């Protein structure tokens, strides 16, 4: 998939912010992910060329970060925190509830392509646990009722 002109420009601008081009690795990967939804071998090549490094190096850096996706995901990436504070406040039963409501296991995408369900480590919002992140938005103090509302709203937003 070719990258848009806007993404090309953004990448060029990001690279100029750093004395060493390779320091722009993470913002560059975020641009690529935003363009394609996840990181492909073409994305690694695109970033590598801009940063004067190798696609293998880019891929190895990307492998450290769970927020950088290496596979396609649904329109809504549901990331449930299962770390300590969230677990103490019921993350596991809520995760089971989400699996039941979505009809998928962790790591899977719904057949309509709307939702991908994953677990993540601490989202840094322990005081409002249990927490999940869907795309760029946090949903806090989760309950079953709140999950029902969220899924209904997202399905309505997607027109399904
Ligand atoms: S443990 Fe879930 S946000 Fe910190």
Annotate the secondary structure layout.
Layout (H helix, E strand, L loop, with lengths): L4 H12 L8 H12 L4 H11 L3 H8 L13 E6 L2 H5 L2 H12 L12 E6 L11 E3 L2 E3 L4 H15 L2
Parallel strand pairs: 1-2
Antiparallel strand pairs: 1-3, 3-4
Helix pairs in contact: 1-2, 2-3, 3-4
The protein binds FE2/S2 (inorganic) cluster.
Provide structural commentary.
- The longest helix has 15 residues.
- A 4-stranded mixed sheet has the order 2-1-3-4, covered by helices on one side.
- It has 2 domains: 58 residues, Arc Repressor Mutant, subunit A (Orthogonal Bundle); 83 residues, Glutaredoxin, CATH 3.40.30.10.
- It is built from 7 helices and 4 strands.
- Helix content is 47%, strand content 11%.
- The structure holds FE2/S2 (inorganic) cluster.
- FE2/S2 (inorganic) cluster (FES) binds next to helix 5.
């Amino acid at each position: 998939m070719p990258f848009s002109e806007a993404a090309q420009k953004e990448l060029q601008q990001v690279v100029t912010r750093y004395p060493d081009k390779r320091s722009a690795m993470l913002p560059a990967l975020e641009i690529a992910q935003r363009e394609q939804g996840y990181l492909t071998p073409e994305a690694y090549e695109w970033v590598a060329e801009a940063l004067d490094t190798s696609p293998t190096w880019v891929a190895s850096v990307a492998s450290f970060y769970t927020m950088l996706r290496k596979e396609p995901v649904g329109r809504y990436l549901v990331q449930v925190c299962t770390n300590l504070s969230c677990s103490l406040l019921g993350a596991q039963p809520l995760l089971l509830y989400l699996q039941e409501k979505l009809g998928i296991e962790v790591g899977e995408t719904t057949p309509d392509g709307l939702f991908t369900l994953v677990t993540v480590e601490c989202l840094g919002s322990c005081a409002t646990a249990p927490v999940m992140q869907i795309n760029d938005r946090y949903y806090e103090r989760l309950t079953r009722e709140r999950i029902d509302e969220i899924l209904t709203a997202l399905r309505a937003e997607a027109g399904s």
